[in-house]
Specification:
139 residues, alpha+beta, 4-stranded antiparallel beta sheet, 4 helices, 8 strands, 24% helix
């Protein structure tokens, strides 16, 4: 399991945005209490209905790369691991970055445009494989 799990802290950028928006301190402190490492059954069902999944990683040089996975197939391997498979362009710089050796931190947003709901995901990519045009990620 990833070393990045169970260690979420709001990073400097999040705190800066909250300060600029004059977010009340009680709301800022509450945010840490709503972040979970485990997926509920409701989250798993939500992920399985996704039509799009924007996701970003950094490459070995620390440069960020992002893509949108379309019509992803998602499976909860455990309450903490999600497997996502989608058809991609193998030449996409995101694909090269995520499949390169080494741990890859990621951030993504599960978005349901019909209900205008979203769930932020972040952690590390535990595994990434490319088979032809199918990218499979374990997050």
């Amino acid at each position: 399991m990833s070393q990045l799990r169970k260690t979420h802290r709001q990073h400097e950028g999040e705190l800066r945005v909250q300060a600029r928006r004059q977010t009340p301190s009680q709301l800022t402190s509450m945010i840490a209490g709503v972040i979970r490492d485990e997926m509920s059954r409701q989250h798993v069902d939500y992920y399985q209905r996704l039509r799009y999944f924007p996701i970003g990683v950094t490459d070995g040089s620390g440069r960020p790369w992002a893509t949108v996975l379309c019509n992803p197939e998602t499976t909860a391997l455990t309450s903490e691991l999600l497997r996502i498979a989608a058809t991609v362009n193998p030449d996409d710089p995101f694909v090269r970055a995520v499949c390169s050796p080494g741990a890859r931190p990621f951030a993504g947003v599960a978005i349901d445009f019909t209900s205008r709901s979203r769930i932020k995901l972040a952690g590390s990519v535990d595994a990434a494989t490319l088979d032809g045009r199918t990218l499979t990620l374990t997050l």
